Amino acid sequence: MDYDVLNVFCGPDGGHGNALGVVRDGALLPGREERQAFAGKLGFSETVFVDDPERGVIDIYTPSVRLPFAGHPCVGTAWLLDVPELVVPAGVVAARMDGEFSWVEARPEWSTPRTMRQFGSVAEVDALPVPPPGEWIYAWAWEDEAAGRVRTRGFPGRGDGITEDEATGASALLLTAHLDRALNIRQGRGSQILTAPQPNGYIEVGGRVRAHF
């Protein structure tokens, strides 16, 4: 089974980013059970199956569940397919390129629920241990509130082997909606996510994408 591996939301130096698997020919694994099993085998936080590359129809899976929408899979797949939009079960995701950044536009309510937990300092976020499986926790603290710079870490809590997500676009959408302002997010070991609220209730989320070799 051929698939691409991308790093999405890379840092300014091109490093880090969250790994994403993309099966360009989704027809090779048409059934949900087959796709779920393959996503579990790959073990990435998300794997995408492309059902129509021209229209941008995609199907997203974690190692344990199917998702109606997810941020870093959409940002990475839009970059890979070079399409103006993606179609996911939650809706139509507009996409664009702007220099080194790949952007998508989505609604925060498309994201799966998670607990936003604010801390008083970056050092507190950095020192957090991985919590036991349970709720999806997005820990954050202001790095520079005036500049909109935030330090975050994401703990899915699913018990499927992904104890911490390196970069999560859906969480960034929810935090942006909560704070109602554009953000420059540093997540995980050194990934970067940019967000910008839009007047129509959508939020843009963008970052660098690199092919993983």
Order of helices and strands: EEHEEEHEEEEHEEHEEE
CATH architecture type of the largest domain: Roll
**Global shape:** globular
As a whole number of angstroms, the C-alpha radius of gyration is 16 Å
Range of strand content:
35-45%
Q: How many domains in all?
A: 2
By secondary-structure content and strand pairing, the structural class works out as alpha+beta
Q: What is the name of the CATH superfamily of the largest domain?
A: Diaminopimelate Epimerase, Chain A, domain 1
Describe the structure.
The protein is an alpha+beta fold and 213 residues long. The protein has two domains: 4-93, Diaminopimelate Epimerase, Chain A, domain 1, CATH 3.10.310; 110-207, Diaminopimelate Epimerase, Chain A, domain 1, CATH 3.10.310.10. It is built from four helices and 14 strands. It has helices spanning 32-42, 71-81, 122-126, 169-179, and strands spanning 4-10, 18-23, 46-52, 57-61, 66-67, 85-88, 91-98, 101-106, 115-118, 137-144, 149-155, 183-187, 191-197, 203-211. Strands 1, 2, 3, 4, 5, 6, 7, 8, 9, 10, 11, 12, 13 and 14 form a 14-stranded mixed sheet that branches. This is PhzF family phenazine biosynthesis protein. It comes from Streptomyces kunmingensis. Pfam families: PhzC-PhzF.
Main attributes?
213 residues; alpha+beta; Diaminopimelate Epimerase, Chain A, domain 1; 14-stranded mixed sheet; 18% helix; 40% strand; globular
Concise account of the structure shown:
It holds the Pfam family PhzC-PhzF. It is built from 4 helices and 14 strands.
List the helices and strands and how they pair.
Elements: E1 4-10, E2 18-23, H1 32-42, E3 46-52, E4 57-61, E5 66-67, H2 71-81, E6 85-88, E7 91-98, E8 101-106, E9 115-118, H3 122-126, E10 137-144, E11 149-155, H4 169-179, E12 183-187, E13 191-197, E14 203-211
Parallel strand pairs: 2-3, 9-10, 11-12
Antiparallel strand pairs: 1-2, 1-14, 3-4, 4-5, 6-7, 7-8, 8-14, 10-11, 12-13, 13-14
